[in-house]
Amino acid sequence: MTRKKVKLAYISNDSARKATFKKRKKGLMKKMSELSILCGLDACAILYSPYDSQFEVWPSPLGVQLVVARFKKMPKMEQSKKMVNQESFLKQRIAKGNEQLKQLGKDNRKKEITRVMFQSLTGKGLQTLNIIDLNDLVWMIDQNLKKINKMIESLNKKAQSLATAAAQLVIKNGGKMPEEKPTFDTMDAIQRQQWFVDLVNPNEQMAFAGDDMMLPFGDANQNPFWPDGFFP
User: Which of 89, 163, 191, 209 is the most exposed place for a label (fewest CB within 10 A)?
Assistant: First the structure.
């Protein structure tokens, strides 16, 4: 069963907050102990709470003093190099979330433009696209053409290699071409050639999921999903 995600917010109920403190404190001490034992680290913890008259330390007052003394011997720059408070931690989380959101937006945009590209092969019009959408579509087509040209070049090199090998066999066998069954490599080349032919010459039966719906890339004010366009 999946654990329910905890909302990171101050608990206003006193009893619930106290129960959470005790539970989390126990878990924190356990994690500190595991980290210290498994990785051989010097670690300590000092806890102040309104529920205890005295502060609580881990692993012991002497252990805390040793770790703190070792920390103070470090240069000031080294002390604060990896120090994180709540504010900086939240800023890091927000920045990471924004970056993930931006990447998801780019991925979705690529899928939308790819879908329009394949729809255009079946005769769908491009009248609903604005200039930015058209620029993105041109970029996407250009990238696919580059991939196709690379595949053609690779197939041509392989065909030349096979032709050279066949010619060498003919010479070796006194001018007679040996009868051989097609290998997996040649069959693979034939299938890829057929795939390329199907791609550049789509038949009328070609269809895509959701052909009856064209995704809107801009609103009534001609503001696209990505106003600046992310495609180079």
Answer: 209
The token pair at 29 is 């001490």
23: burial class by Cβ within 10 Å (0-12, 13-18, 19+)? exposed
Residue 217 token pair: 């890339």
Burial track 37-71 (b if 16+ CB lie within 10 A, e otherwise): eeeeeeebbeeeeeeeeeeeebeeeebbeebeeee
pTM: 0.41
Structure tokens at 14: 């006193």
- Beta-carbon contacts of residue 158 (< 8 Å; ≥ 6 apart): 185, 189
Token pair for 188: 């693979």
* Omega within 30 of 0 (cis) for the link into 59: yes
Q: Which two tokens stand for residue 26?
A: 């126990």
Q: Copy the structure tokens of residue 172.
A: 């070796």
Q: What is the pLDDT of residues 47-92, one digit of tens each?
A: 988 888 888 889 999 999 999 999 899 888 888 777 777 788 888 8
Counted residue by residue, the chain has a size of 232
